[in-house]
Amino acid sequence: MENKLTKNGLRIFAAAFAQSLSASLAEASGSKLPLEVVDQGTNPTNDGTPIQFKLTVEGALRGECFVEFYEPQVAALLSMIMQQPITALDNNHLALFTRLVAAAAEGFCKSGFAGDGELKGGIERVSGLAFGGMSVVPLVASEPKAELQVLLFFSPGLLESVTRVLDKNAEETAGERGLPAYNLNLVMDVELNVSLRFGQRQLPLSEILELSSGSIVELDRTVNEPVELYLDGKLIARGEAVIVDGNYGLRVTEIPQPLTSQFLN
Question: Do 84 and 62 share a structural domain?
């Protein structure tokens, strides 16, 4: 069963692999192909025959991660890289794509995911695998010339290894504030949605149904009280509402807890 530490570790692992895969594909295609981690509950549509790889990790981490692509998207991607239309993948196409994934695996092993621990990784193409019950992290990339969807499946051994390494790093390098020592540089490019809350109000259904254009709803906060900034339902800052170039903004005046702690917990 996944705990919060394991889920955070898998997302950081996936973000590091996504960064390496993006770099490998960008170098081959000459175009940026950013990949981002998405929620497990919003798996991308898996259209087409799967193309599967097994990434075996050894060293500071040990275990297997299975990487699943889809044939139509791989064909479109290779068409862009080779600058010629590809309607069906042959062995030469798959060999080229395998080298690109292998380069991504090599880049991941050098990413510093395991801190000072050395990582070695090997890639091999597999087929016909079923991943029922395995932990999965989806990656999605959209770009004017290509669309790519990838699923990462984690073996139980790799799950345990990721949790153990991150837990060890947290115990050894926690600072005075007791913050876990994750390598946040690996996920600095991940975009997060934040919301600004001026206040709230509970209304009976009868009053809600009576709302119309021009209705005024009084909130539970006076104009002198600070507004609040939320990340994924968690309060991360308070401040004053301002206008910047015609848009609402927030001048931060208070951060209740360290932002690193908010993000990891």
Answer: yes
230 token code pair? 């939320």
Instruction: Give the C-alpha separation, 30 to 41, whole Å.
Output: 32
Nearest to 69 by CA among 46, 103, 94: 46
pTM > 0.85? no
Same domain assignment for residues 79 and 136? yes
Q: Would you list the DSSP string of 87-126?
A: SS--HHHHHHHHHHHHHHHHHHHTTTTTTTS-EEEEEEEE
Task: Identify the domain boundary among 187, 209, 244.
Answer: 187
Retrieve residue 217's tokens: 């709803």
State the CATH number of the domain containing residue 72.
Answer: 3.40.1550.10
Instruction: Name 16's Cβ contacts closer than 8 Å, sequence gap at least 6.
Output: 108, 111, 113, 186
Same domain flag for 176 and 234: no
Distance CA 83, CA 2 (A): 43
CA distances in angstroms from 210 to 150, 199, 203, 215, 218, listed in the order given: 47, 21, 11, 9, 15
Q: Give per-10-residue mean pLDDT for the chain (265 aa).
A: 68 88 89 80 65 91 91 90 89 94 90 72 88 85 71 89 71 48 57 82 88 89 85 83 85 76 53
The widest CA-to-CA distance across the chain, in whole angstroms, is 68
Contact 170, 37 (CB under 8 A): no
Interatomic CA distance for residues 88 and 77, integer angstroms: 12
